[in-house]
Amino acid sequence: MSHDSLIELLDLDAEVLHDYVHDLVGWVGREAAERPRVVDLGAGSGTASLALARQLPGATVTAVDQSPEMLAHLRARADAAGLTARIRTVDADLDRPWPDLGPVEVIFAAASMHHLADPAAAVASAFRALRPGGLLVIAELESFPRFLTGTPDEELESRGHAEAAKRRHEAGMHMHEPWGHRMEQVGFTAVTERHFDIDLRPPLSAAAIRYAQVCLGRMRHGLQERLSPRELAALDELVESLPGRSDLSVRTERTVWLGRRAVHPTG
Ligand SMILES: C[S@@+](CC[C@H](N)C(=O)[O-])C[C@H]1O[C@@H](n2cnc3c(N)ncnc32)[C@H](O)[C@@H]1O
């Protein structure tokens, strides 16, 4: 699957799910130290890095990712937004020992922890990287975005999602990890869990319709060997029809865990 379509999808996340990202970063800002040094883990195209730098006064952000293409795109977005001085990038594979990230008050990981090979080790690395009093924020997808309503389209979309979930599971992704429990296990305190239900009703903006096309197009691409030729053809037709439709909505759920490395550890 092309990197370009993932970059486009992540950029569209920033636009279409703007209110969710804004609420989430606002929450982090209320909990974090002043002028925090933030690490955005698995930063991708930079949605969170840019939002964190914009919304948290005086924050500096280190965006870490293993994809040089993502990081180049992120730097270009930071330049365009006038945020170059406050966002730096680090090219690193987080499945290997983490690079020295310097003193860090906030580690933010959106839709990235599930990619890492060993979730418990990743949470422990985050704990060690944080200064006492620092925050770890893990935001994960409870459900991938859905756009269609009514039969047979909604059934076809659900069938695609079910196969895509099996594919992710077989690829070793950790989609529904007990992140809060993992955080408590390594010593994070005051772990709070929040659910965000996103439900954008029709008529959708042009960006949201494009979002539907890119999401479903990417899903279809990964299911070549898993759906029947008839289902694949129906999915192709569906994806093609999206730009002309006025009945699409965006429904997705995110769960976010926020925990603190205590200043004075207990026990
Ligand atoms: C689904 S994207 C999420 C990007 C971004 N956090 C967002 O919410 O828009 C996951 C990102 O994690 C990165 N990633 C996956 N495995 C990684 C690893 N082992 N080390 C560093 N980055 C990784 C990918 O390159 C990708 O940019």
From TrEMBL:
Keywords: Methyltransferase, Transferase
InterPro entries to which the protein is assigned, alphabetical: Methyltransf_25, SAM-dependent_MTases_sf
Pfam families: Methyltransf_25
Domain called Methyltransferase: residue spans: 38-134
Keyword Transcription regulation among record annotations: no
Keyword Cell cycle recorded: no
GO molecular function: methyltransferase activity
Family matches, as PANTHER family: METHYLTRANSFERASE, OS06G0646000 PROTEIN
Name of protein: Methyltransferase domain-containing protein
Organism: Micromonospora rifamycinica
Taxonomic classification: Bacteria, Bacillati, Actinomycetota, Actinomycetes, Micromonosporales
